[in-house]
Specification:
Blueprint: H1 3-6, H2 13-62, H3 66-75, H4 77-116, H5 118-121, H6 125-129, H7 131-142
Helix pairs in contact: 2-3, 2-4
Length: 151
């Protein structure tokens, strides 16, 4: 359990565990989001390199015949590798998008559950009056908004 969550006052152990779980899910979501953006930019970079290489090497030389151009592209190993990297990058980008959406859904569901159950989690009067301190720490430390259900 993270030290900031361990040191929270006005929360019981079960609530601290829920806050720790939402922190872990937020971290997983942020990590996969970072990798997804990295895959987008990598795929765009290799697609750009492929298009420039394709134009400079094949279009200008073989623009008279599509079949001659296709034959030249398939015989050129650099073009085949660039195309393969671009296609693999596109597949990885889509796979990471699906994982990102799944992680975001898991994170948002747990976060919304904490917001919905806040009356049950902070039952005592003193805890209820000071729950905003917990919410502020979670927002400032981990960028997790527990004030509202909306993103």
């Amino acid at each position: 359990m993270d030290t900031t969550i361990k040191e929270l006052e006005f929360t019981d152990q079960a609530t601290k565990q829920m806050l720790e779980n939402v922190r872990k899910r937020k971290k997983k979501f942020d990590d996969i989001k970072k990798w997804h953006y990295f895959s987008i930019y990598g795929t765009l970079f290799f697609a750009f390199i492929f298009i420039v290489y394709f134009y400079l090497t094949f279009v200008r030389s073989y623009s008279f015949s599509f079949l001659a151009m296709l034959s030249a592209v398939l015989n050129d190993s650099v073009a085949v590798y660039l195309l393969a990297i671009t296609i693999i990058g596109f597949g990885a980008m889509n796979l990471l998008k699906q994982q990102k959406d799944k992680k975001e859904k898991e994170y948002q569901e747990l976060r919304c559950e904490i917001v919905d159950r806040s009356k049950d989690l902070w039952k005592k009067e003193e805890q209820w009056k000071n729950r905003h301190i917990v919410f502020e720490k979670m927002k400032k430390q981990y960028d997790i908004n527990l004030y509202h259900e909306k993103k």
